[in-house]
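Sequence design from tokenized structure. All designs in this work follow the same two-part layout: the structure record, then the generated sequence. An example of the structure record is given first.
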């Protein structure tokens, strides 16, 4: 099963809200080594491949504004251990930014969202290459969620068992104010309503027990059948809805306009979850938030993400060794601990946490 698997990493954004004009995936986030988001997911792919004795495929979706810098980040690091035949890059489309009169503000454009990733994947030739390699299941993750496991076996197993077109992961909504999409059912199909488009009443709605009426949050973590993506890419035109949101433009865009001060324009995006409307063959898998979801959105979220990574490492070390790591110690596990071989599990059984801050197998 695991041999016929690839993952797509949606990574077209910049680290603007992190105080950087570099690709968000280059942000150093790990607890000890300061590994970038890109390095973590690349090392997960390498480690999973070793554990499953196969070369898993990974494709990074970039944008026009961060493509070159993303390639440079990988090239300078010798692709973080990935082999050239494992790693691919492709670029998403872009759309003009609009003023309040729906007029394009030349020459400003922005990435067109993640909803048409399958068209760009097909146009790049990657989808066909993966099909010829026998790949039938493709997971899709966001680069800004380092807790996501691109080779999450329960998600993949559910997807294959149900012969789904789409399987999406979810976590429980705990706070109605949280900016996450709501997973609902509409006309017999799973759907997601984006948080910016949720009415106040729906956001706060509760059932007779006091539980949130819509308890599942979308975390943009999916498994797709390659055949379904191929079918979607062949439909011309594919009528996907456009979503608009008003956003502050970047410093670089202000320089292009020759203006200073706050400038907010309308950004148009396609969203990946709208593909749910095209199939009834979908399922949702509820996952533990602590293990799965803590996105890096802005400078204020950095500490929370690092704390979440540490907690996950503490939990995983106990899973492998059956020995509790000291809770007052900061440390970082190699990603190989998350895809252990039988030999590694035997080696680490009943072993206490070593004194080093960075733990390798």
């Amino acid at each position: 099963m695991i041999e016929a698997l690839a993952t797509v990493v949606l990574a077209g954004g910049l680290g603007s809200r992190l105080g950087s004009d570099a690709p968000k995936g280059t942000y150093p986030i790990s607890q000890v080594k300061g590994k970038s988001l890109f390095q973590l997911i690349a090392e997960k792919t390498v480690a999973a491949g070793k554990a499953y004795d196969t070369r898993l495929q990974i494709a990074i979706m970039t944008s026009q504004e961060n493509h070159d810098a993303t390639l440079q980040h990988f090239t300078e690091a010798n692709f973080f251990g990935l082999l050239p035949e494992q790693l691919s890059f492709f670029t998403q489309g872009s759309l003009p930014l609009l003023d309040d009169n729906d007029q394009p503000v030349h020459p400003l454009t922005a990435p067109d969202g993640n909803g048409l990733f399958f068209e760009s994947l097909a146009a790049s030739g990657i989808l066909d290459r993966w099909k010829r390699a026998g790949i039938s299941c493709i997971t899709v993750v966001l680069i800004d969620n380092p807790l996501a496991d691109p080779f999450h076996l329960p998600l993949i197993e559910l997807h294959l068992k149900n012969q789904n077109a789409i399987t999406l992961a979810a976590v429980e909504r705990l706070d109605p104010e949280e900016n996450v999409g709501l997973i609902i059912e509409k006309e017999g199909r799973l759907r997601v309503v984006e948080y910016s488009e949720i009415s106040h009443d729906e956001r706060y709605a509760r059932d007779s027990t006091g539980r949130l009426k819509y308890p599942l949050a979308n975390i943009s973590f999916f498994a797709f059948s390659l055949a379904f993506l191929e079918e979607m890419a062949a439909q011309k035109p594919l009528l996907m809805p456009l979503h608009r949101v008003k956003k502050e433009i970047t410093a670089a865009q202000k320089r292009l306009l020759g203006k200073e001060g706050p400038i907010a324009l309308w950004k148009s995006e396609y969203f990946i979850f709208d593909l749910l409307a095209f199939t009834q063959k979908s399922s949702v898998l509820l996952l533990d938030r602590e293990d799965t979801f803590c996105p890096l959105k802005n400078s204020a979220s950095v500490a929370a993400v690092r704390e979440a990574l540490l907690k996950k490492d503490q939990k995983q070390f106990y899973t492998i060794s059956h020995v509790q790591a000291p809770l007052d110690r900061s440390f970082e596990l190699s990603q190989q601990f998350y895809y252990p071989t039988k030999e590694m599990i035997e080696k680490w059984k009943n072993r206490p946490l070593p004194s080093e801050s960075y733990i390798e197998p």
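The longest helix spans residues 302-321. We note this feature because it recurs in several other targets discussed in the main text.
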